Amino acid sequence: MIAPRVNSVACANSTxxxxxxxxxxxxxxxxxxxxxxxxxxxTGRDFDALASRLASRYRVVxxxxxGRGLSDWLAQPLSYAVPQYVADMVTLLAxxxxxxxxxxxxxxxxxxxxxxxxxxxxxxREAAHIPPARLSASIGExxxxxxxxxxxxxGPRVEPISLSRIGEYLGQGLSFERYEDAVGYMKVTAxxxxxxxxxxxxxxxxxxxxxxxxxxxxHYDPAIAMAFAGVSEELLTQGxxxxxxxxxxxxxxxxxxxxxxxxxxSDATVQKMLATNPLACKVxxxxxxxxxxxxxxxxxxAVVDFLEADSANG
Length: 314
Description:
Layout: E1 5-13, E2 16-25, E3 32-37, H1 48-54, E4 59-63, H2 82-96, E5 100-106, H3 108-127, E6 146-152, H4 160-170, E7 175-176, H5 179-189, H6 198-206, E8 209-212, E9 215-218, H7 224-229, H8 233-248, E10 254-259, H9 267-276, E11 280-285, H10 297-312
Parallel strand pairs: 3-4, 3-5, 5-6, 6-10, 10-11
Antiparallel strand pairs: 1-2, 2-4, 7-9, 8-9
C-alpha cells in the first residue's frame, strides 16, 4: 500500500482552535478530490487500502475527525457532534480547493456528508437571490458540491439498537500490555465487519490502538461518549427528519453500500432511500454487518467502479 502524506488544518470551535489531521494520497495538484470520512470510533487510516487503489486517478484525502487519531481533542465534550464535524470539513475543503469533490462516508462520515450536502443546497438557494452585479465568477461556488457520494452502511435513519450496541464499548477505557490482545479485542468488538484475514485485522487494529506509557490504548478521546450518551430519542427523531430532507435534496449519484446483516442500516431504510432518490443505487455485502471495512477487495472494487462511472459519463 502507498504511505500517505500527513498534514493538518486549523479549525474553529466554541472555545478556540483545534488541529484536524488529515492524510493525503495522489497528486496534490489534482483538482478532483475523493474525501473519505470514517465512522464514530475509527480513524482516517481506515482508507489506506482504498486510497492506494484510487491514488493514480484522484487526490484522496482522509481526515482524523476531531477527537480521533492524530487530531486534537476538544475542551468541550458536547461539541463532539455533527455540526462541529461539518464545519471542520468546510475548513478542510477550503484548504484543498477541489474543482470536483467525491465523498466516501462510513457511518458517521456519511451523516457528515448529508449535513454538508444540506449546507451546499442552502448556499445555492441563497446565491440565487444575490444580484448578478454582486456575483464574481472568479471566486466560484461558496462551497463545492458533492459530485458522487458513497454512503457506507448509513442513511437518514439510524436504528436505535445499533446505537445501544456502540454505546456499550464507546466509553470503555481499555488498555492492553500486548498488541496481540488488542487485535483479539478488535476481532470480537468489530465482528460485524465480516470475515477478514489476520493481516486485515492487524490493519484494522494498528491505528485504533496506539502505544502510550507501555500500554496499547484506544486512539480517541473518551469524552466522545459523553456527547453520544446525550442523544435522546427526541433528538434522533428530529435529526432523522432533517437527514431525510438533506438526502432527498441530493443531486449527486449516490452508492449505498449495505452490510446485509447491518443493525444500523435496515433493509426498509435502504428501500426508502432508493425510492426517494432516483440517482441512488445499492450494493449488498453478504456476511457483513455494520459496517463494510473497505479493505476487502470486492468492497474496494464497488467504490472504484462507482467513481469511474463518473469519468465514463464525461
